Amino acid sequence: NTAMDKKKYTGRIRNKTILVFIVMFIGINCAVHLQIMNRINEEKLKATYTAEATVRRIEAQINKYLSKSDLLKQIIESGSTISDEHFTELSGFMMADDDVIDVIELAKGGTVSSVYPLSGNEEAMGLDMLTDPDRKTSATIAKNSGEYTIAGPFQLVQGGDGALLFDPVYVKGENGQEEFWGFTILVIDWEKFIDEVKLEKLEEASYHYQVWKKNPVTGKKLTIAQCEEPVMNNALEVVCEIPNDTWYFEIVPQGGWVSTTQAAGGYFLVIALTILVTLGYWQFELRRYRDQVHAEELEKAA
Known about the structure:
By secondary structure, the protein is an alpha+beta fold. It has helices spanning 2-77, 84-95, 136-145, 190-196, 200-204, 260-301, and strands at 101-108, 111-116, 149-155, 161-172, 178-189, 207-214, 221-226, 236-242, 245-253. A 5-stranded antiparallel β-sheet has the order 2-1-5-4-3, with helices on both faces. The model has no long low-confidence stretch (mean pLDDT 83).
C-alpha cells in the first residue's frame, strides 16, 4: 500500500509540475514578449521622429529655393515686365551662392520663354509644360491649385537628371480677376539636393531608408532617394504631405527593430526561468512528501 501511495503521489506531483511548467512558460513568455513589443514601439517612435525631422529639413530646403523663385514671381504679379537683360541679371544674382539650382526658367502661358543660363539649355526653350508628356500632369496641378509642385526627378531635355519646381504665377486681368500668367521654374540638380539635406546622416545613425512617391503620370512607385543598400523588410512608413503631392518615407534600423541577440536573449530567458521555477516546484513537492512520510512514521512509532 505504501508503494502504491508513493506512486500515486509521485504521479500527482508530476502532473502538477507539468501544469506549472506550461503556466510559467506562457506567463514568462507573455512578459518577455510585452517587453520586446515595448522596445519595438520605442524604436518606432524614434524612427518616426527621425523621419519627420528629415522631411522637415527637406521642406525647409525646398522653401529656401522657393523664396528665390518668388522674387521673379512678385515682379511679374506686380505688373512689371521683365526684360531679357533684367531676367539674366536677377537669375545670375539668385544662383550666385547656390549650386543646387541648375537653371531658372520663365514659362509664360506654360511655354518656356526665358532660360538662364541659356548656354547648354537651348533645348528647353519653347517647351510647353502643359502639353509635354512628362511634365503636363504636375504643371496642370500647379496651375489649377495655385501652389508649387515638384515634378520628377527625371531625365531633363537638356540632359542630366533633375527635378522641376513649378511655381504658378497669376496676375490681375482687365476685369480685376486673377488670370494665369505662367510659371517660374527652378531646375534642381537632384543629387546635389539630396546631399544638401544630408540624408547620409540616417545611415550614420544606423538606419536604412527610402523616400518615394507615386508617379503622377503612371501611378507607379517613383523613388526620390534611398540609402546605398536599402533593406526595407518590416519598414516603418511615415506619410508626408507636401503641396500637391504625398511623399512616403520608409525607415528601419539596420539591425531590425529588435536585434537577433536581443530576441535570442529574450527566448533564452523564457526557457531558463521556466525550467528554474519548475525544478524549484518539483523539489518543493518532493520535500513536502518526504516530510509527510517522516511525520507518519514518527506517529506510528509513538
